[in-house]
Description:
Layout: E1 2-9, E2 13-20, E3 23-27, H1 28-34, H2 40-47, E4 53-58, E5 65-70, H3 72-81, H4 87-105, H5 111-114, H6 117-163, H7 170-175, H8 181-190, E6 194-197, E7 200-203, E8 213-221, E9 227-235, H9 237-249, H10 255-266
Antiparallel strand pairs: 1-2, 2-3, 3-5, 4-5, 6-7, 8-9
Helix pairs in contact: 1-2, 3-4, 6-10
Amino acid sequence: MNNLQIFNNxxxxxxxxxxxxxxxxxxGKDVAECLGYKDxxxxxxxxxxxxxKGAGVLxxxxxxxxxxxINESGLYSLVLSSKLPxxxxxxxxVTSEVLPSIRKHGMYAKxxxxxxxxxxxxxxxxxxxxxxxxxxxxxxxKQKEQIIGELKPRADYTDRILKNKGLVTxxxxxxxxxxxxTGLNKLLHELxxxxxxxxxxxxxxxxxxxxxxxxxxxxxxxxxxxxxxxMNTKWTQKGRLFLYNLLRDNGILPTIxxxxxxxxxxx
Length: 267
């Protein structure tokens, strides 16, 4: 799909056209408005056959928009069903002036334009600039869509972290990565985040005192039946976010982001 062109008529207004599969297609909403339909969506639904309709993604300053487009047959259907007295004039203008010119020159050009080489060069130059601008807009929109697609899973996961104000265990964090608590503890030890002492994981000096963890005393029963207490390390949400950034820097992503990256790779 290419060659977005916009042409105006002082009596009817603006109509956008595109070339799709070597055929000329019109933005249905534009045609319906020119022909006086108040509810353009209803007009397209009631008067245009399905085989004469399609979808086109057109670049706009606000981003790519998916619009309903119609072929020449669909345009004629709207003309015949229009109650606007000037509907026939609209049809005559499109069929006798616009369409032949697009087919012949690949652009909309009136006779006086074709008879004036200097003016034709100016218009062709402007058309070239407009196409380059549209191409740039389309590229920028695609880049924005890709960035949004990349950031959304990350935002979803960090939002989940920030919404949770309580303490979490290493096992709970590990589940976000498809790992076990034991496996994640071992990994954090290898990354010089923590070490084990008296059966409790403690942070190395570089990371301690930053509010990442909180030690809790829990009651336990020894194998011989004796009651005892044990110190257990839990992570704050600040610490959880620290782990997220650390693991991401080491190429380890939460499952929510892994799935998103696989979808991007497949597309």
